[in-house]
Design brief:
globular; nine-stranded antiparallel sheet; mainly beta; Jelly Rolls
Length: about 250
């Protein structure tokens, strides 16, 4: 897996990095995708378990709804329920989405956002939960093993209500920053610095709760990856070795 990531990394190294989120005079990142789900179409999303998701009516129109438990158990301890936007890969990005928790209140009440998604065993996720502890309300890395908290700063938790909330994730690969906001975009509720994955897909979901998502907007720098599947395996390995040797 690391070798494949090394090859893919060469494809983004020459990209001009977008202006940081604190530069008020800089233009916004390009709009790559926008969904209000009113048409009920979900074919651009890949689900850990498609039977758990459906478009449903809500107070703000149709929403992408995590309506039931997922019949999916990951190889490593990590979220069971997610919907990944499957046709766009990004490096720098800003993801905005409205979210509503639809479960009764309890200590680990949560919803999640996903980023840097490579495959079911390699990605980051943001866990917004009522109370912070080693396994809740943090930014986590799943890298071929059980999830690990990587947040450098975080609040004590987020008190989910039954209403809608605005969530935002900002990712900048130059410094490895990941910043997470809920409702108030002036100050992040958690942040991390990590460069394990400098590109990937984004998504929404939950560790093991239910909820709704709407008005999803993705702005960012699109990454075009080589068609590795069309190349012989030995050719991929040789190319990865060349990248690793050059980096030494």
């Amino acid at each position: 897996m690391l070798r494949l990531l090394a090859i893919a990394g060469t494809c983004v190294s020459g990209l001009a990095l977008a202006a940081g989120p604190d530069d008020k005079d800089a233009p916004k990142l390009p709009l790559l995708a926008s969904f209000n789900f009113d048409d009920g179409k979900l074919e651009r999303f890949k689900f850990s378990d498609p039977s758990a998701w459906e478009p449903t009516e809500s107070a703000i129109g149709k929403a992408l709804t995590l309506a039931r438990k997922a019949n999916y158990r990951p190889k490593f301890r990590s979220p069971e329920r997610y919907a990944i936007l499957d046709d766009i890969v990004v490096s720098d990005f800003t993801l905005d989405v409205r979210a509503q928790s639809t479960v009764k209140d309890y200590g680990h009440r949560d919803l999640c956002l996903f980023l840097g998604y490579q495959d079911p065993d390699h990605y980051y996720y943001v866990h917004v939960a009522k109370a912070a502890d080693p396994h809740a309300h943090s930014i986590f890395l799943v890298n071929g093993a059980a999830r690990v908290s990587i947040a450098t700063e975080r609040t004590k938790g987020f008190d989910w209500t039954d209403g809608w909330h605005k969530l935002r994730v900002e990712r900048r690969v130059a410094d490895g920053s990941i910043k997470v906001y809920v409702d108030d975009f002036a100050k992040p509720i958690m942040q991390a610095v990590d460069k394990t994955f400098v590109w990937g897909k984004i998504g929404v979901g939950s560790f093991d709760d239910l909820g709704k998502f709407d008005d999803l907007e993705l702005r960012g720098t699109k990454v075009l990856l080589p068609k590795q599947a069309a190349r012989p395996a030995d050719e991929i390995i040789k190319a990865a070795d060349a990248v690793e040797q050059k980096a030494k």
